[in-house]
Amino acid sequence: MSFDGFTIHALTDELSDLLTDRRISKIAQPEPEEILFTIKMPRGTARLLISANASLPLIYLTSENKTAPALAPNFCMVLRKHIANGRIKKIEQMGLERVIRFTIEHMDELGDTREKYLYVEIMGKHSNIIFTNEENVIIDSIKHISFQVSSVREVLPGKQYFIPAQEGRKDPLSESAEGFAATVMKKPLPIFKAIYSSYTGFSPVTANELCYRAGLDGDQSTASLTNIDRDRLSHEFASLMSDLKERNYRPAIIYDRGTEKPIEFTVLPLTIYEDKDQKTFDSISDMLETYYAERNIYTNMHQKSSDLRKIIQTLIQRNEKKLNLQEKQLKDTDKMDSYRLKGELVQAYAYSIPEGSKEAILDNWYDGSKMKVILDPQKTPMENANHFFDKYQKLKRTREELSVFCKETEATLQHLLSIRANLDLCENEADIAEIRSEMEEAGFLHKKYGKKKVRQVKSHPLHFVTADGFHLYVGKNNHQNDDLTFHFANGNDLWFHAKKMPGSHVILKTEGREVPDHDYEIAAALAAYYSSGRDNDKLEVDYLRRKNVKKPNGSAPGFVVYYTNYSITVKPSLAEVTEVKE
């Protein structure tokens, strides 16, 4: 869930409970679009981080203290001048908008009590932190927005502050269940779009959650809703608003099972992610700080592997073009048999073809038809026949060579595609180092000679266990796939792989036990999940005893062949396995 109106609502309640009537002791601007307040608490201090960064706007209490620049920026100086040592009197959300208003009481130059407002707008690329006086006249803002930038609203000192109108959108907190149904039904759109385009506070995720709770497909058109569907949707809407009003919050982070990658955060239960791992928190700020810290780890991993991704993508495109050209040239050799036939016919009927003929109509003894053959009048019939045979031999040699080249290019392309899929499984620098090493061995990367070799921590395959106690192992790269299949697994262990696509080798250790059918399905779902077809609803997975899996001599890492396999169609999933940390 993004910072939608629901998250802002819950966070505002939390901040209001903790910070109301507390004094601001320090104000810093560690980043150009970021403010850090240090607030006096009964015991110690609290830090409130506010960021209006277009790519990552946020607000939450944090335990981290950031270093402020030696020379404070203008906006920070304005805040220090007006509200340093000020008291936070009120924290409120404006409607269900993504706007929080801090009312701050302070003493002016004459010693009189005054109030100022600090508006925090968490609106993606339009996020801002705006400081105003009691009459909502802007004193300053962390971003200045002129009419050259936005025709909707100027955000400049001296201008009146207002929240841009959300045309056609209502406040859901003041809406009845009947009014909600009537509003949504008016829009000829998919249900989830009709919801979030009609009401403030809703994001696409929250709108889809509402549909899911009502047992409806969010992509379903509003026109297809029956009266029963509409009643269920209205009931769930009323229930959701009741949870919000009664503060029935359950802060949680949703994790992608098996990778521990945070994919979403929520302040209310998200049943659409019931098949994912969830970690709950007592504090919304703790949840947000944890989410962004963990998300940053995966962002950094993606950045650290970005150079490899670029190289791999370039090589994939290059080899795809190369393969297309080779296949086109190979198709051109299909006419070689026609040259051989023409040579045979001209040779056989040479005695009946006059010298200097430009063409000849000859009997084709293979199918009894007549064949028209174009001849070179400057050559004798036998010379024409030899010319056709020469063309046939040339195309035959070309075909033989191109067949080999096509296989080599296709093998290289499959190797590159498997490496690209493996990059998505990298969890640490050791995983990236192994893939980099594989690329160097394959010649996709130049080895760096003369550089001191740093000892890398060895990367390990993923390890899962089923409810029946069967252990499953998943290779995260091609070297791990080879090690699992040919060194770790026993001959009677089961081997799984997504059919005809890049993916991990999955080993189910039988340990001499009879494997229930359900565990076959679990292992197949795991192999489907750790493949390039993860996003498919259904995927075909091959499985067989490990002893029947062979590796051709000289083949690329991870490449195997097998012939006596079975297949099963499953949904990619990690729902029924528990990861074992090595």
Overview of this structure, please?
The chain is of the alpha+beta class and 582 residues long. It has 13 helices and 21 strands. The strands form 5 sheets. The protein has a 7-stranded antiparallel beta sheet with strand order 20-19-17-18-16-15-21. A 5-stranded antiparallel beta sheet has the order 5-6-7-8-9, covered by helices on one side. Strands 1-2-3-4 form a 4-stranded antiparallel beta sheet. β3 and β4 form a beta hairpin. The longest helix has 43 residues. The protein is elongated, with a radius of gyration of 34 Å. It starts with a helix and ends with a strand.
Question: How much of the polypeptide forms β-strand, as a percent range?
Answer: 15-25%
In this structure, how is the largest beta sheet organized?
Answer: 7 strands, antiparallel
Please tally the helical runs, counting DSSP H or I stretches of 4 or more residues.
Answer: 13
What is the number of beta strands? 21
- Gap between N and C termini: 31 Å
Radius of gyration: 34 Å
> Class by helix and strand content?
alpha+beta
What number is the mean pLDDT? 90
Strand order of the largest sheet: 20-19-17-18-16-15-21
- Please estimate the helix content: 25-40%
Low-confidence stretches: none
Q: What is the general shape?
A: elongated
Write the layout of secondary structure elements.
Elements: H1 5-19, E1 24-31, E2 34-40, E3 45-51, E4 58-62, H2 74-83, E5 87-93, E6 99-107, E7 113-121, E8 128-132, E9 138-141, H3 177-185, H4 191-196, H5 204-213, H6 227-245, E10 252-256, E11 261-266, E12 277-280, H7 284-304, H8 306-332, H9 336-348, E13 359-363, E14 370-374, H10 381-423, H11 429-442, E15 462-466, E16 471-474, H12 478-488, E17 494-498, E18 506-509, H13 517-529, E19 539-545, E20 566-570, E21 577-579
Antiparallel strand pairs: 1-2, 2-3, 3-4, 5-6, 6-7, 7-8, 8-9, 10-11, 10-12, 13-14, 15-16, 15-21, 16-18, 17-18, 17-19, 19-20
Helix pairs in contact: 3-6, 8-10, 9-10
